[in-house]
């Protein structure tokens, strides 16, 4: 298991369409796929929608140019799906269903398989989107080759990929608690608030949207720095449309809104 296994899996597929978000996992997968299958055999495709931060789209385009990838940005319209906007615990299912519905015609035209940068660690969290992708014929080569998140980052570092230590990102809707309607206004506020925090030098951030309240998560090691910057953080987040700004003392944890799905105690 490992990188050679990954290359063999990709070669067996022949042609792939990589769902390319620009994060560490999909970036590594796209880079290896390009190496294994060449420009024509590997197509990195980025879903562009209000759920994707503008800076992430720009970075996807930049990475593709740096690495010589065949890249396309395509529009997805998950906001047209009522179940997505209603934002139940299965929201990610409907988001990935939309993604697959857009990628499927591209893959079919190229005789390709849609592949996602899911790793072994992702299998343990509440991620209904994986089911939607699996049901629609996508494959998860990093899982099949036995990669954990840490191993993806280490393999990326060995390759000299600048994404090896890129902070984890996720769809902007993941900042909105289940049951609260996903709106363009909320997504925009989250994007602007997080951009303000990044501009202050905070790397791994989440702004959880609770109506007028923004609950800010930063890495535990950056809590002191965030507190020292509390005036600047407050100004930046309020400028994004929030009335109140709270710093979460537990710090950043991926998928923290999933905590609401677990029994108390």
Structure commentary:
It is a single chain. By secondary structure, this protein is of the alpha/beta class. The chain is 46% helix and 14% strand. It is built from 11 helices and 7 strands. A 4-stranded parallel β-sheet has the order 3-2-1-4, sandwiched between helices. It has a 3-stranded mixed β-sheet with strand order 5-6-7. Helix 1 (3-13) crosses helix 2 (24-41) and helix 5 (91-110) packs parallel to helix 6. The radius of gyration is 18 Å and the shape is globular. The mean pLDDT is 94.
- What is the β-strand count? 7
Shape: globular
Structural class: alpha/beta
Which spans of ≥5 residues are poorly predicted at pLDDT below 50? none
Q: How would you state the average pLDDT, rounded?
A: 94
The sequence of SSEs as H and E is: HEHEHEHHEHHHHEEHHE
Spatial order of strands in the largest sheet: 3-2-1-4
The largest pleated sheet is described as: 4 strands, parallel
- Report the sheet-strand fraction: 5-15%
Count of helical stretches: 11
| Global Rg | 18 Å
- In which range does the helix fraction lie? 40-55%
State the end-to-end distance.
Answer: 39 Å
């Amino acid at each position: 298991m490992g990188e050679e296994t990954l290359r063999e899996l990709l070669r067996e597929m022949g042609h792939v369409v990589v769902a390319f978000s620009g994060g560490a996992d999909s970036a590594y997968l796209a880079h290896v796929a390009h190496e294994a299958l060449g420009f024509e055999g590997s197509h990195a495709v980025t879903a562009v929608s209000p759920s994707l931060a503008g800076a992430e789209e720009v970075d996807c385009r930049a990475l593709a140019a740096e690495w010589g990838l065949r890249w396309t940005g395509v529009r997805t319209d998950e906001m047209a799906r009522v179940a997505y906007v209603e934002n139940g615990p299965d929201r990610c299912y409907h988001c990935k269903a939309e993604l697959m519905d857009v990628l499927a015609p591209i893959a079919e035209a190229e005789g390709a398989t849609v592949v996602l940068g899911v790793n072994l660690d992702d299998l343990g969290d509440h991620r209904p989107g994986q089911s939607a992708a699996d049901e629609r014929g996508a494959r998860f080569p990093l899982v099949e080759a036995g990669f954990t998140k840490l191993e993806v980052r280490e393999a990326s570092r060995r390759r000299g990929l600048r994404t090896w230590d890129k902070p984890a990102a996720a769809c902007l809707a993941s900042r909105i608690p289940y049951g609260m309607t996903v709106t363009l206004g909320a997504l925009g506020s989250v994007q602007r608030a997080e951009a303000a925090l990044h501009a202050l030098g905070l790397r791994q951030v989440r702004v959880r949207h609770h109506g007028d309240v923004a609950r800010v998560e930063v890495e535990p090691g950056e809590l002191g720095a965030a507190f020292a910057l509390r005036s600047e953080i407050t100004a930046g987040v309020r400028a994004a449309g929030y009335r109140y700004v709270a710093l979460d003392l537990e710090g950043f944890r991926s998928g923290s809104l999933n905590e609401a799905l677990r029994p108390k105690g």
